[in-house]
């Protein structure tokens, strides 16, 4: 394969676009774009127009540098309808309800365009980078929230409603913290960057960014260490459930919070060993992503390539 593919990883306040060749990102640019603020302040139609215009400008820049790109894949933070590929809703981009990004982008670019949930795209990226061809992989993405993805026999498993592996909403503490989904005690209220912030705030009454709490934990600050321990503990409890359901050996942990893995790891390993059934103990191969945050770009690009080849 010598042609190039575009992969886009959309976040709430910026997005990154990469040109991918042979599973390597050969060109990458970060674009500041406050889609979250835009969606809060504008009507759904205005927000959609603005998002489309912004993405098209970025795509045009990439195509100017790489005219032979043959498809575009987008990882998007929201629930994607598995049949229509419309964005059903996006917790971080409120107001976007059942909107179609794919058809207008396809029409404007004249290229195949594929849209996938951002964590699912990252899962596929990790799978591609693992070098497997018909294997299985579970991806746990720790960022502002917690997402996940499942690849089975080389195919991304999205589920009947596009919400397979919405692991951030596995309930780990009944009657715990209120979650944006309406339930209490969801994993992402503890194991995400904002979850760690909440844990630290609950213990100290001080609001700090997760990166600062990580720095304090590395200096043996008790409350900071406990916030990360709790994150690792609940993440492992969730993975033990997932493993008992899907029985997949390969597990990759990614997302911005995975940089703090040494702070999560001891509690994670203790709880995982405890919660797994004997048949699975010692059998899970858990690694931290080495994709330097490019898994979402690579996965989105490769999913678009797959679709084009069908
Ligand atoms: Zn929830």
Summarize the structure in words.
The chain is an alpha/beta fold and 310 residues long. The protein folds into two domains: 5-123 and 294-309, Nucleotidyltransferase, domain 5, CATH 3.30.420; 134-288, Nucleotidyltransferase, domain 5. It has ten helices and twelve strands. It has helices spanning 35-41, 44-65, 102-109, 118-129, 188-191, 193-204, 210-218, 222-246, 261-275, 295-309; strands at 5-10, 14-21, 24-32, 72-76, 79-80, 87-89, 113-117, 137-142, 146-152, 155-156, 250-254, 285-288. The strands form three sheets. Strands 3-2-1-4-7 form a five-stranded mixed beta sheet, with helices on both faces. Helix 1 packs antiparallel against helix 2 (44-65). It is globular. The mean pLDDT is 94.
CATH level 1 class label of the largest domain:
Alpha Beta
User: What is the assigned CATH homologous superfamily of the largest domain?
Assistant: ATPase, nucleotide binding domain
* Overall outline: globular
Number of separate helices: 10
Taking the sheet with the most strands, its summary is: 5 strands, mixed
Ligands and ions found: zinc ion
Query: What are the secondary-structure elements, in order, as H or E?
Result: EEEHHEEEHEHEEEHHHHEHEH
Q: Number of folding domains?
A: 2
Q: Summed up, what is this model?
A:
The protein has 310 residues and is α/β, with parallel strands linked by helices.
List keywords for this structure.
2 domains; five-stranded mixed beta sheet; 42% helix; globular; Nucleotidyltransferase, domain 5; alpha/beta; binds zinc ion; 310 residues; 10 helices
């Amino acid at each position: 394969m010598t042609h190039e593919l575009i992969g886009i990883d959309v976040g709430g306040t910026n997005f990154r676009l990469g040109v991918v060749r042979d599973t390597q990102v050969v060109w990458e640019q970060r674009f500041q774009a406050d889609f979250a603020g835009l969606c809060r302040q504008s009507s759904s139609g205005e927000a959609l127009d603005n998002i489309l215009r912004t993405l098209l400008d970025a795509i045009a820049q990439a195509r100017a540098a790489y005219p032979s790109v043959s498809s575009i894949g987008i990882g998007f933070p929201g629930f994607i309808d598995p049949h229509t590929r419309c964005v059903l809703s996006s917790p971080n981009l409120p107001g976007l309800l059942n909107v179609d990004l794919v058809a207008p982008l396809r029409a404007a670019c004249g290229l195949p365009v594929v849209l996938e949930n951002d964590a699912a795209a990252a899962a596929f990226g990790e799978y591609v980078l693992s070098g497997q061809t018909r294997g299985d992989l579970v991806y746990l993405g720790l960022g502002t929230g917690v997402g996940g993805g499942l690849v089975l026999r080389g195919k991304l498993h999205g589920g009947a409603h596009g919400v397979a592996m919405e692991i951030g909403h596995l309930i780990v503490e009944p009657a715990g913290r209120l979650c944006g989904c309406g339930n209490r005690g969801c994993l992402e209220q503890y194991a995400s960057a904002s979850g760690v912030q909440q844990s630290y705030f609950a213990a100290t009454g001080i609001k700090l960014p997760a990166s600062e709490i990580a720095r304090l934990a590395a200096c043996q600050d008790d409350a900071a260490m406990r916030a990360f321990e709790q994150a690792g503990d609940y993440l492992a409890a969730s993975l033990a459930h997932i493993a008992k359901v899907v029985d997949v050996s390969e597990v990759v942990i990614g997302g911005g919070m995975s940089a703090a893995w040494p702070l999560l790891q001891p509690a994670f390993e203790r709880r995982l060993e405890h919660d797994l059934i004997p048949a699975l103990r010692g059998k899970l191969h858990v690694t931290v992503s080495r994709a330097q945050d490019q898994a979402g770009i690579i996965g989105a690009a490769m999913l678009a390539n797959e679709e084009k080849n069908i």
